[in-house]
Amino acid sequence: MNSANTLERRVVRMTAAKKLEVFTEPLPEPGPHEIVLRITIAGICRSEMPTYEGEGSMVMKGPLGFSCIIDSVPYPASFGHEPTGIVEKVGSEVTRFQPGDRVSGAGGGAFASHIISSEFAPLVKLPDNVSEYDCLAEPVMCCCNIVRAVTPPEGGFIAVVGCGYMGQVCLSLLKAHNVKNVVAFDPLQERRQRALELGADYAFDSSDPNAIPEALKLTGGTGFDRAIELSKGLDGLQLAVSLMKMPTAEDRGMIAASSVYDKHEMWPTALGFELMCRCPELHFVHPGFIPDTEGLMREAVEAYEKGYLPEGGFITHRFKPEDMHKAYEMMENGDTSYLKGVVVFD
Fold first, then answer.
1. What angle do CA 103, 321, 309 make, to 5 degrees?
2. Contact of 14 with 75, CB cutoff 8 Å
3. What is the helix (H) or strand (E) element at residue 89, kind and residue range?
4. pTM of the model
5. Residues β-bridged to residue 38
6. 183: Cβ–Cβ under 8 A, 6 or more apart, which residues?
């Protein structure tokens, strides 16, 4: 706080491709229906990689009126959308929150020590047994969305392709919902082992050419009913499609394609052909497939409250604001020790 009793905040901004700087600036007063949220942690999302690399930026309202990625970055750029923190101040007409409330959810410009948020933003209060230093409701909400969308029919098989952070959260939620016949696919042995610990019934090396035929044997050769695709690439989508059963009058295969396909990849001929032949429902469910955002946020916090997720919520790395570039470098370099990173602001 400066001599004029004006609050200041620290903000991480991109000033050029792969260049992050920490700025100090005055914090505006909240409007009548706004709150001041002091950020404890903000999640770092792989979907921000195009912004970090300077290739484009996510905007909530693009030229056509919808969310999109534009092919430029308006430097200096603020970003981050997974805030958790403590309400420090409320506007004159705020009724949903009060100072001291611990909340988590979604909000733009989250890489800052404080943000101004509408009280009607998708933020939910944390119960006493959920730490504001471990909970990230926004990405877990996305996984709740995914699991709701693709629960298999009784006796059916579901594949989880990619067992990184989102895949492990999904596996935890599938186990909490007592979903059976869960089959995990990942090229890393340690992640396949973790998938089994989290409730997968089987785990296959996705880089093994025998993985698909061996997995199909589990279904008696008929194919998988559902798949969650979280590999970040078209090879993972190809694997998911190759597992799908042929459609019947009663049901057809369904794929929750929740990866952010932000790499420049050639579309494989086999992928298009198998999509045509197997005719699965292809659902892009991250994060807006089910529009009940607040309900999903509450479901996400409940997953922490009920212990569906392990202590720490799969967070593997915590960074100071001036060091957060290291998270993107680890993701860019494919560091297998990295699962989920957060920026810690206090």
1. 45
2. yes
3. strand 83-90
4. 0.94
5. 86, 114
6. 157, 158, 159, 160, 200, 201, 202, 203, 204, 215, 218, 224
